Amino acid sequence: MLAAKIAVAAALIAWLVRSGTLDFGALKIFYHRPALLVASLAVYAFTVVLGALRWRLLLRLAEVHLSVGRALQLMLTGMFFNVALPGNIGGDVIRSVYVAREAPREKRATIYVIALLDRLLALVGLIGVACVLTLARGHAVWDSPQLRDLAIAVLVLTAATFGGPILLLVVVRRLGSRLDGWTGGASRIGKVFAQIVAAVRLIAANPKTLVGALGLAVCIHLAGIILFAVLATAITGQDIAVSTLASVYPLGMLTLVLPISYAGFGVGHVAFDQLFALVGLTGGATVLNAYLISQIVPCLCGVIPYLTLRRQAAPIDSEIDAS
Questions:
Q1: What is this structure's pTM?
Q2: pLDDT digits (tens, 9 = 90+) for 87-115
Q3: Which of 161, 165, 239, 269 has its CB 3.0 to 4.6 Å from that of 285, i.e. a possible disulfide?
Q4: Any residues with CB less than 8 A from the CB of 74 and at least 6 apart, and which?
């Protein structure tokens, strides 16, 4: 499966290069304009720190308290796994396993649910920023057929992304302890469902923590959109406003998580090229390429905290399956 994803990514990128749509030479911008390289690294560091703080905040729901240094160590290790060691073992799983090892057994289900919640809040933050920035443009969006279609897509995504989780939390809070009776049981599956329900109930009982974590996610995505707009302007020479990319950026980023190619390479490039064309811009694939490389290459630095973690036993199959 992994080999097939890599093959799809390679084929799409080769096709984009041959057609002149993707220009790897644009990466020289980081050499000719070192301020852009510094800005990219600063955004990467900002993302790592706020991501670690968000995860650390959410872990408090399970009464698990990590130091900032430990959270950063595990966050960098997880990002290293996501980039350098592709496969079915995600970085979120790895860092959650290390935390679960040090926590009481009854808290482990909540720790694993929090890993999923962390990803969900990142998605909600991305769509929320896109919605606000898109609506802020007012009539400029609705007067253009292309922008109007993108705006509608963003609004639909916003409704689904916010509505689903909010409805789930309301239902869980309303039903309360009655869920325990419905999901309980002596079987292994019954116990697993009971643990998951208990974790969701715990999360639903702490909305302030969720709002704080969502705020951190919003800050991360704002930084990403601003950097993307700066790179787009520098690489293409077009005057591109942040608000213009607000409806393009989230839709394009969502294509990166589609299980078609490795890390969304190729598929994301094609998507951004088409999305840029919808708003009258060019060079979407080239801009995404520069953006991804500027944010992915630094992830390799995660090998340093990973090597420090190797003093501990590496996660085994049973722990990964449990997560």
A1: 0.83
A2: 545 788 889 888 988 888 878 888 888 88
A3: 269
A4: 52, 66, 95, 98, 99, 305, 309
